[in-house]
Design a protein that fits this description.
By secondary structure, this protein is mainly alpha-helical. Among the domains are: 26-185, no CATH class; 240-289 and 355-455, no CATH class. Helices cover 46% and strands 10% of the residues. The protein contains 19 helices and 11 strands. A 3-stranded antiparallel sheet has the order 9-10-11, with no helix packed on it. The chain has a two-stranded antiparallel ribbon with strand order 1-2. The protein has a two-stranded antiparallel sheet with strand order 3-4. The longest helix has 31 residues, at 27-57. Bound molecules: zinc ion (ZN). Zinc ion is lined by residues 372, 374, 377, 379, 406-407, 409-410. Zinc ion binds at residues 372, 374, 377, 379, 406-407, 409-410.
Length: 463
């Protein structure tokens, strides 16, 4: 089809689609038109994949600056495609993957060669096979290319395409993309059972750790750990998962009439919180660059006027804005540095770092507190944040007399958990929430062994 004919077609399809008679349709007509529109979409999708393949072929890295993407100022065919289509990177990457597997090559004499998955290519071109099913199919069969006989692979591909397009002798009903994924995985397991065995080399090649795209305020984590890595992670988590919050705080008599008070967090949530502490401790140690003694684990930017009143912030490397509560915690433990930016984006003025505890201050506070100040919490000092007892915004100084160690979780929830902290002559005291201790007594709850020893009035011997 010439490009002019394609433009004419696109114009008339757009005109027909603009007049959408959706709500006036009867049931049967609605279903019929849905199928027709989908068939149209599949043909367009096949063309999208083919176009992506052509752009990739003209943007090969070995062509260097002469490649198409490079000439258009893009780092890759994928970037060029995203700019052209406004589609997501996941979407354009899927098109490129499928294009690479279904694009026909050319011999030196100019003859067309079959594609790697030629049945898939043919069914895509006729609009019978959708991109979702084609991806599910090729994703499962592609790893088998070097492992099973080409004839066996060809048979599997043909059968799966037949199932997806309803042209199989077994069934004339098209299988959905999800069904194709399951069928393809069965084919894979049947053709290459050894490939499924978790032998070491295989696991080694498959090991990985991924952060997915953010959704609903959470970044999904996925991947696979080698058993030895999983063992280390488990040991770390198990050592710091807290079964209870109370025992270290209440006396035995006070505990007698209560059942042990459970940590309100799930085990999954606790593991998440332990991980933050581990990462923070690592960021603070060794060669990590520091701002005024505190390691800049995450850079958060916000408007100056929001600093006192509370407002959204933006973290380096994270897409969605951070809530005022999150920002407040990060400012409390991480400090601030004012940067005045002009209307044209130029930096007009750079202030010095404020409100962050220096490394010597942190060491002093660690010696006094010994770990998270909330009784029953087993997060060690090295993994804790320093909390301003009187917020800096309310005039609280960044001084050891106003800073206590709290783990990430107890810091995050200090305003809502019912735990209260005050400083008495430079020593922190903790008040438990009423559901835990109805006397509401203030108590010095330290985990520092030297502080405990001094309270006992005896000299401190050894660890
Ligand atoms: Zn804690």
């Amino acid at each position: 089809m010439s490009s002019t004919a394609l433009l004419d077609l696109a114009g008339s399809v757009a005109a027909a689609l603009a007049d959408r008679p959706v709500d006036g349709l009867g049931d049967e007509a609605l279903l019929g038109i849905t199928r027709q529109v989908e068939a149209l979409g599949r043909s367009v999708d096949a063309l999208r994949v083919a176009m992506a393949g052509e752009i990739a072929a003209r943007s090969r890295t070995e062509d260097g600056p002469a490649g198409l993407a490079a000439r258009k100022g893009c780092r890759s065919a994928n970037e060029l495609l995203q700019r052209l289509t406004q589609a997501s990177s996941a979407n354009t990457a899927a098109r490129l993957t499928l294009a690479a597997l279904t694009r026909r090559g050319t011999t030196l004499s100019g003859a067309r060669m079959p594609a790697m998955f030629d049945h898939v290519r043919a069914a895509l071109e006729t609009g019978d096979l959708g991109v979702d099913a084609a991806l599910a199919l090729t994703k499962n069969l592609a790893p088998l290319r070097d492992r099973v006989h080409p004839d066996a692979l060809d048979a599997a591909e043909r059968e799966l395409v037949a199932a997806a397009t309803g042209s199989s002798p077994d069934s004339h009903v098209e299988a959905s993309a999800d069904e194709i994924r399951i069928q393809a995985s069965v084919w894979r397991a049947t053709l290459d059972p050894i490939g499924l065995e978790p032998d070491e080399a295989h696991a080694m090649a498959k090991r990985g750790f991924r952060l997915g795209p953010e959704r609903n305020g959470l970044v999904p984590v996925s991947g696979g750990l080698l058993p030895e890595a999983a063992g280390r992670v488990k040991r770390l988590f198990d050592a710091y998962l807290t079964p209870t919050t109370a025992p270290a705080f209440l006396t035995d008599e006070e505990l007698a009439d209560k059942n042990a008070v459970k940590d309100p967090r799930t085990k999954d949530q606790q593991r998440h919180d332990v991980l933050i502490g581990v990462l923070d401790a690592m960021a603070r140690s060794g060669d990590t660059p520091t701002i005024g003694g505190a390691a800049p684990t995450v850079l958060v930017t916000m408007r100056a006027e929001d600093l006192e009143t509370g407002g959204a912030g933006y973290a380096d490397g994270v897409e969605s804005p951070l809530s005022p509560t999150t920002v407040k915690q990060m400012v409390c433990s991480g400090g601030t540095q004012k940067v005045l930016i002009g209307r044209n984006g130029r930096i007009l003025k750079l202030g010095s770092a404020e409100r962050c505890f220096t490394a010597p201050q942190r060491r002093a506070i660690t010696a006094r507190d010994g770990g998270c100040r909330i009784p029953g919490c087993s997060i060690p000092a090295g993994w804790c944040e320093v909390h301003h007892v009187i917020p800096a915004a309310e005039g609280g100084p960044t001084h050891p007399d106003n800073g206590v160690l709290l783990c990430w979780f107890h810091h995050r929830t200090i305003d809502t958990s019912g735990w209260a902290i005050r400083m008495r002559a430079g020593a922190p005291e903790v008040q438990a929430p009423p559901w835990l201790d109805h006397t509401r007594r203030w108590r010095p709850a330290t985990k520092s062994r030297i502080a405990l020893a001094m309270r006992l009035g005896r000299p401190h011997h050894g660890p």
